[in-house]
Design brief:
Structural class: mainly alpha
Shape: extended
Number of strands: 2
Distance between the termini: 50 Å
Helix content: 25-40%
Strand order of the largest sheet: 1-2
Strand content: under 5%
Length: 86
């Protein structure tokens, strides 16, 4: 019988977690504490009721008065490219 050798698996370069549950359980608090424990920036954006994609993605830069989306603004506020984004 042949011996099975274990494969070497490298740790993920990017990790995504989903926190699900009813309002008031502490999902936002846990996310903030996780970012703090990892020494990362933390950004939270409320998209409750948002129906227009430009709020998330921003407007076309060829338009006068164009703005980046809320995602880009939040990440830039943390000044950390590897921040935790909620």
């Amino acid at each position: 019988m042949e011996e099975v050798k274990p494969h070497k698996i490298s740790p993920p370069k990017q990790l995504m977690l989903a926190l699900l549950g009813q309002p008031g359980l502490g999902k936002t608090y846990i996310a903030g504490q996780l970012a703090k424990a990892l020494g990362r920036g933390y950004a939270s954006v409320s998209l409750n009721g948002v129906k227009d994609a430009f709020v998330v993605y921003g407007t076309d830069m060829s338009n006068p008065g164009a703005n980046p989306g809320e995602v880009v603004k939040a990440i830039s506020r943390t000044k950390d490219q590897t921040c935790l984004f909620l």
